[in-house]
Design brief:
Helix content is 31%, strand content 21%. By secondary structure, the protein is an alpha/beta fold. The protein folds into two domains: 2-112 and 283-296, 3-Layer(aba) Sandwich (Rossmann fold), CATH 3.40.50; 114-279, Dihydrodipicolinate Reductase, domain 2, CATH 3.30.360.10. The strands form two sheets. The chain has a seven-stranded mixed sheet with strand order 8-9-7-10-13-12-11. A six-stranded parallel sheet has the order 2-1-3-4-6-5, with helices on both faces.
C-alpha cells in the first residue's frame, strides 16, 4: 500500500488524478480538510508523509512545494512547467529510450507538457533514426480543448453568455515563447526551436499535434516513418495508427482516455505527422499516473483508461 498526496487537488489535473486513483486498492490518500488545503505547515507534513506526491500547482508554487519535501523516500511528480528541463529532475516520458528505467529509480519526476508530449513523441524517434537531421527547422501546430487552460478558461467557455470570439478556434503563444518550447527542444533531439502555433478550440478535451515535413526536412516515405513509429511505440499507452475517419482526423477522438496514437499521412516531400490524445490524459493526469506506476514498479497501465 502506497500513500499518495495530491497538492493542488482542486485543479483539473489534480481532480482527474484523484478520480483515476479512487478505485485502486494499492493506494491510500493523504487528504487535507478544506481549511488546511493552503496551509503551508499542513502541506509540508503531507508532502513528507507521502510515498508519492503529485504537485498540481502553478510553477512558483510547485517550486515552493518541492523545496518543502525533504523526506528522501518521497517521490515527487510535478505536473507544472517548473522542473521539466531541470538537470536534477527526470523527464516523465517513459516512451523515450532509457527513460522508463530512469523514472523507475527517480525521486523527482517532471511530467511532460500537453503540447510538448505530442511533438516529442512524433519527432524524437525520427531524429534518432536519422530520418530527421538534428538541425532540422520544423513547425508545429497543436490543437487543444479548453480544459487545458484550467478552471478559469473552462468557466469562460462554459458561461451562458460567453464571448462570441470563443466560438471559434483561437491561436495563442503568438510571441513564440510558449512555456513548452524548452522541453520540446531538449527532448526531441533537435537543436532548434520549432515555429510553434498552439490553438485552443471550443471543445472540452482532446489534442491533435501536427508537424508538417517537406522535402527540405526529409525524403522519407509514409512507410519509412510508420516503421520507426511501430518499433518505438508498440503500445499499449502509445501506439501507431494510420487509420482516419473517412478522410478526417478529429482532435477529440481520444477524449476521456489516457493513451495516445501517432501516425503520418501524405507522400514524400508533403507529409504530416499527427499525434492525438487527451490533453488531461496522456497530456497531463494520465501521464502522471503512468509515471507513478513506473516508480511503484507496477503495470504502468494500472488505473488508466486505455482504448
Amino acid at each position: 500500500m502506497k500513500t499518495v498526496f495530491v497538492d493542488g487537488s482542486a485543479g483539473t489535473t489534480g481532480l482527474r488524478i484523484a478520480s483515476r486513483l479512487s478505485t485502486r486498492s494499492d493506494i491510500q490518500f493523504i487528504t487535507l480538510p478544506e481549511e488546511k488545503r493552503k496551509d503551508q505547515q499542513a502541506r509540508r507534513e503531507a508532502l513528507n508523509a507521502a510515498d508519492i506526491a503529485f504537485l498540481c500547482l502553478p510553477d512558483d508554487a510547485a517550486r515552493e512545494a518541492a523545496a518543502m519535501a525533504d523526506n528522501p523516500k518521497t517521490v515527487l511528480i510535478d505536473t507544472s512547467t517548473a522542473h521539466r528541463v531541470h538537470p536534477d529532475w527526470v523527464y516523465g516520458m517513459p516512451e523515450l529510450p532509457g527513460q522508463r528505467e530512469r523514472i523507475a529509480s527517480a525521486k523527482r519526476i517532471a511530467n511532460p507538457g500537453c503540447h510538448a508530449s505530442g511533438y516529442i513523441l512524433l519527432v524524437a524517434p525520427l531524429v534518432a533514426a536519422g530520418i530527421l537531421g538534428a538541425d532540422s527547422a520544423l513547425s508545429c501546430i497543436s490543437l487543444t480543448g479548453y480544459s487545458g487552460g484550467g478552471k478559469k478558461m473552462i468557466a469562460d467557455y462554459e458561461a451562458d453568455a460567453r464571448d462570441p470570439l470563443l466560438d471559434a478556434p483561437r491561436q495563442y503563444g503568438l510571441s513564440q515563447h510558449h512555456k513548452h518550447v524548452p522541453e520540446m527542444v531538449k527532448y526531441s533531439g533537435l537543436s532548434a526551436s520549432p515555429v510553434f502555433s498552439p490553438i485552443v478550440a471550443p471543445y472540452y478535451a482532446g489534442m491533435q499535434v501536427i508537424v508538417p515535413l517537406t522535402a527540405a526536412q526529409t525524403t522519407a516515405s509514409v512507410e519509412d516513418i510508420l516503421a520507426v513509429y511501430r518499433q518505438a511505440y508498440p503500445g499499449p499507452v502509445v501506439r501507431t495508427d494510420a487509420a482516419d475517419e473517412a478522410g478526417f482526423l478529429s482532435a477529440g477522438a481520444m477524449a476521456g482516455r489516457d493513451d495516445a496514437v501517432v501516425g503520418v499521412w501524405g507522400e514524400p516531400g508533403h507529409l504530416t505527422l499527427v499525434a492525438r490524445y487527451d490533453n488531461l490524459g496522456k497530456g497531463a493526469s494520465g501521464a502522471a499516473i503512468q509515471n507513478m506506476n513506473t516508480a511503484m514498479d507496477v503495470d504502468e497501465c494500472e488505473g488508466l483508461v486505455i482504448g
